[in-house]
Amino acid sequence: MSGLVLLLAALPAAAEIRVAATTANMGMLVETVGGEAVEVTVMAPNDRDPHYLEARPSMMAALRNADMVVAVGAELEIGWLPAAIDGANNGTVQPGQSGYFELARHIELIKDEGVADRARGDVHPVGNPHAYMNPENLAQAGRALAERFASLDEGNAETFRANAEAFAAQVAEKMDAWRQAMGDPLPVLSYHGDVQYLAQALNIPLVGTIEPLPGVPPTASHLSGLVRDLKGGEGVVVARVYQPDKPSRFMAQQLGWPVHLLPSDVNPGEGADAYLELIGRWVAAMTHKDA
Q: What's the pLDDT tens digit per position in 255-291?
């Protein structure tokens, strides 16, 4: 019996908080702040656009067993997360409960100056949800997430807070380095509005989107108008790897600009270093400088 007791004492403690993260970037934030006190399941594959997924049994299973769900919010996951939560039959992770956390509720969203309307195909009616492209937003949300974890696991509260502050310091160091190396960045044409937060944070000029509205495929007339307006200047075209590449390559060819197709999420299980390296690739693409 004593040998069994010693063996059990030597085993690592079970994770205190089980988290279902909607995307790999949210999973990274959960692991960065929660450390060994959390167990994370990422629900959305990082090579698919989270705007257009459907609820799957695997998502419902992750939510059914979760103490928390951590989402991007701002309706990024509107097409599948509510249905997955309903199918999970877990009241703890319902919106408004302590087990429901959204990045979008802890940062200032960029909102369209016009009238956003999902009926027109606009997938950003409440504001741009791609706030995770600016690391400063994740650092800010990380502090709020630390407090939420602390409310669920008081014994690790100071560890959660220290982890969040360490991540915020790491982000600040990177952002300062990118700003100091910035110089005069060239204008950027993006396929979607996903780089808006990063561009705004680093004062990189955005000259338009290949989509006429978020989620609306480009028309020939829209592309012709962009070519007419941008021809003769310098710039760069950027898009995510899972977005249609033909319009981006067409615009790059017509304008004589380089085109960069990049992922926007880390791989599941990767940490803060991988996330900042990924954002650095976007910075380098948009500024023609090494990350």
A: 999 999 999 999 999 999 999 999 999 999 998 754 4
Q: What global pTM score does this model have?
A: 0.91
pLDDT per residue as tens digits for the range 163-185: 999 999 999 999 999 999 988 88
Strand partners, 38: 17
Contact status, residue 135 vs residue 279, Cβ threshold 8 Å: yes
The Cα–Cα gap between 149 and 137 comes to 18
Task: List the structure tokens of 72.
Answer: 């991007």
